[in-house]
Amino acid sequence: MDRIVFLGTGGARNVMTSQVLSTGGFILEIKNTLLSVDPGPGAVLRAAQEKINISRLDGVLISHRHLDHCGDVNVMIEAMTRGGFRKKGMVFAPRQALSDDPVVLNYLRNYVENIQPIEGLKFYRCCSLEFKTSMPHKHGDAETYGFIFYGGDYSLSYIPDTRYFNELSEFYRSDISIISTLMLQRNKNIDHLSVPDVISLIKEHKPQAAILTHFGMQIYKTGVDIVADKISQAAGIKVIAAKDGMIINLKELLASVN
């Protein structure tokens, strides 16, 4: 079953440090490949609660080095390799996250089969799952990339933290789009997407369905479903607010909108 399991739907420091929402990223299972994407704080705990055997992971993928996207990466590597007793799996991360103030501990690097620094606009493969990186995002000084994953007959994009810029909509054309939606309103001093940005982005790149995640405190207090309904009405497509522990069958989601 091609699916997403959300291990956390929160983002940024206030939500991360309060854990009103978990910040564990998500598990992606496509083409019999199991991938942990942006495992921030709470990923391992939530995986245990959802009875996901993370020793089955084939890889770990990090969009950038901020703690809410990589806080549990080392524990995920420990689990994937059974503490180094089984050399297994791949780790994908921007070069900055591996060499400049690295987030993956050195002693763990020999546990995995391959550590792959990622660059913009290139194709990569983890087992049978192919994906492409975006152009560099505009996210402060953090080297940040998003991804398009290729299922058998559909594409799934993941848009992590970034300021809105025009090239986003062209790259992220896909059937389903996961969008990090941190803020209610634009703030020129914060390099994150807001609700107006997400509405514009969806109208431009026209996915069949969108899934919102990585919510900041304002969106959490407003109500994530209220925000999703507002975006859905404005953009004219099905928009889902992800919840901690939510499982989405990707092919069933596409069938429901066709």
Describe what this molecule looks like in 3D.
With 258 residues, the chain is α/β, with parallel strands linked by helices. 28% of the residues lie in helices and 26% in strands. Strands 6-5-4-3-2-1-14 form a 7-stranded mixed beta sheet. Helix 5 (95-99) links the parallel strand 5 (90-94) and strand 6. The radius of gyration is 17 Å and the shape is globular.
Please outline what is shown here.
This protein is α/β, with parallel strands linked by helices and 258 residues long. The chain has helices at residues 12-18, 43-49, 67-70, 73-80, 95-99, 167-171, 195-205, 217-222, 224-235, 250-257, and strands at 3-8, 23-30, 33-37, 59-61, 90-94, 114-118, 123-126, 129-133, 147-150, 155-159, 176-180, 209-213, 238-241, 247-249.
Number of helices: 10
Strand order of the largest sheet: 6-5-4-3-2-1-14
User: Could you estimate the helical fraction of the residues in percent?
Assistant: 25-40%
Alpha carbon gap, first and last residue: 19 Å
Assign the structural class, choosing from mainly alpha, mainly beta, alpha/beta, alpha+beta, or little secondary structure: alpha/beta
Mean pLDDT rating: 97
Instruction: Write the element-wise H/E pattern from the N-terminal end onward.
Output: EHEEHEHHEHEEEEEHEHEHHEEH
